[in-house]
């Protein structure tokens, strides 16, 4: 096996299919997901994973298929064990390490989580080359992604970063950025995740983790929320890598362009479409769909309001293509939570901005941090005295 080869195992597209089939609200996607999941399981002879999905009633159990795949798994593992025993008797450490990796990769491919993790850890222990060790840790991270094990992902991301710092090559460093970026999105760290994905945009090679189109889509979704308007154009809208894929991502193209061009009514339509097509059906982003939509609305409101000292509710409603009652209700909620710096004059139907000064914001930050420090000192004094 070439040291540079990165196998697309486990097949993460199947974890996405499993998520879709586990979500009643995505019933319109079930037929394609069911077909894709079953075909993927059969292609990789994933008997252990088939047991998981059938026990969860995601797929109906076909006993003959299960027995056939289990027979194939048993025969293949026996062949690998024979090669391993032969390597132990007649070959050197490198051949033994290759055989251990072959066993670990096969168990990873068929979706046997516990045995795969154990085998990958043993292969990691016996493998001498730094590059190969990084690849094994990346495989462990993918197992974590496949089974939605955040603790496992975090553990091996840390280990991968340590190994890369010891001398990982350019390609593996860039792959790791994508792994870290995707994990950041999964835990709602959109700014950090967006930075990492954007940094890997022109050098993306991590197709074992995510397809290129999905990678670009994730990069856009994260960065539209966090980039300033000048950076949005410079780093995304006119980026060749983004332009190349945008015809296949029309909803994201509309979202990004209309936000930048201040066509807020079209932006709201694109945001609603994005929620249904890219957020809720995505197992990484689905838990954060409501948060993301809310933050994008706040971003758009702020972008419009910062250009005016005051604006009528009627004008604001027409700009966003919604009713006055809707704007009134939504602005009131965001103002009350401190997310919009403006007031609503219901008598005159006017929204007046009252953005705080930079000095005032700095003062509030100092006071808030001072309170945190005082509380920490008080807790420490109780422990000491």
Give a description of the structure.
It holds the Pfam family PCI. This is PCI-domain-containing protein. InterPro entries: PCI_dom, Rpn7/CSN1, Rpn7_N, RPN7_PSMD6_C, TPR-like_helical_dom_sf, WH_DNA-bd_sf. The protein is mostly helical. The chain has a domain of 127 residues. Helix content is 71%, strand content 3%. Helix 3 packs antiparallel against helix 4 and helix 7 packs antiparallel against helix 8. The mean pLDDT is 93.
List the keywords.
385 residues, mainly alpha, 19 helices, PCI-domain-containing protein, TPR-like_helical_dom_sf, proteasome
Element layout with pairings:
Blueprint: H1 12-21, H2 30-43, H3 47-55, H4 63-90, H5 93-109, H6 113-126, H7 130-147, H8 150-165, H9 170-186, H10 190-199, H11 212-226, H12 229-237, H13 240-245, H14 250-260, H15 264-279, H16 289-305, E1 310-312, H17 313-320, H18 324-336, E2 342-345, E3 350-353, H19 358-384
Protein name: PCI-domain-containing protein
Function: Component of the 19S cap proteasome complex which acts as a regulatory subunit of the 26S proteasome, involved in the ATP-dependent degradation of ubiquitinated proteins.
Pfam families: PCI, RPN7, RPN7_PSMD6_C
């Amino acid at each position: 096996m070439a040291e540079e080869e990165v196998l697309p195992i486990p097949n993460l597209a199947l974890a996405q299919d499993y998520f879709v089939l586990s979500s009643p609200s995505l019933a319109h996607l079930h037929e394609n997901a069911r077909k894709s999941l079953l075909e993927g399981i059969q292609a990789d002879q994933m008997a252990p994973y088939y047991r998981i999905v059938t026990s969860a009633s995601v797929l109906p159990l076909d006993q003959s298929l299960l027995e056939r795949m289990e027979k194939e798994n048993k025969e293949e593992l026996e062949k690998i064990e024979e090669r391993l025993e032969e390597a132990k008797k007649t070959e050197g450490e490198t051949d033994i390490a290759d055989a251990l990796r072959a066993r670990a990769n096969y168990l990873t491919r068929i979706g046997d989580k516990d045995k795969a993790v154990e085998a990958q850890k043993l292969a990691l222990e016996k493998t001498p080359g730094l590059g190969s060790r990084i690849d094994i840790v990346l495989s462990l991270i993918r197992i974590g992604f496949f089974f939605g094990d955040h603790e496992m992902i975090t553990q091996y991301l840390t280990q991968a970063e340590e190994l890369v710092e010891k001398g990982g090559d350019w390609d593996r460093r860039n792959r790791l950025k994508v792994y870290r970026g995707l994990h950041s999105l999964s835990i709602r760290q959109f700014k950090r995740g967006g930075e990492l994905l954007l940094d890997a945009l022109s050098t993306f090679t991590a197709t074992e983790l995510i397809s290129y189109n999905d990678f670009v889509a994730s990069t856009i979704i994260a960065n539209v929320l966090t980039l300033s308007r000048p950076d949005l154009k410079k780093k995304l809208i006119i980026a060749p890598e983004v332009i190349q894929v945008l015809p296949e991502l029309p909803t994201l193209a509309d979202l990004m362009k209309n936000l930048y061009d201040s066509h807020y009514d079209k932006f709201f339509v694109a945001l609603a479409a994005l929620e249904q097509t890219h957020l809720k059906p995505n197992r990484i982003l689905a838990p954060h769909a409501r948060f993301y939509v809310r933050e994008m609305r706040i971003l758009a409101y702020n972008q419009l309001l910062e250009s005016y000292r005051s604006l009528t509710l009627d004008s604001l409603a027409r700009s966003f293509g919604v009713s006055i009652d809707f704007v009134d209700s939504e602005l009131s909620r965001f103002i009350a939570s401190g997310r919009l710096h403006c007031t609503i004059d219901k008598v005159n139907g006017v929204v007046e901005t009252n953005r705080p000064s930079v000095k005032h914001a700095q003062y509030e930050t100092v006071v808030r941090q001072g309170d945190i420090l005082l509380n920490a000192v008080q807790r420490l004094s109780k422990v000491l005295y």
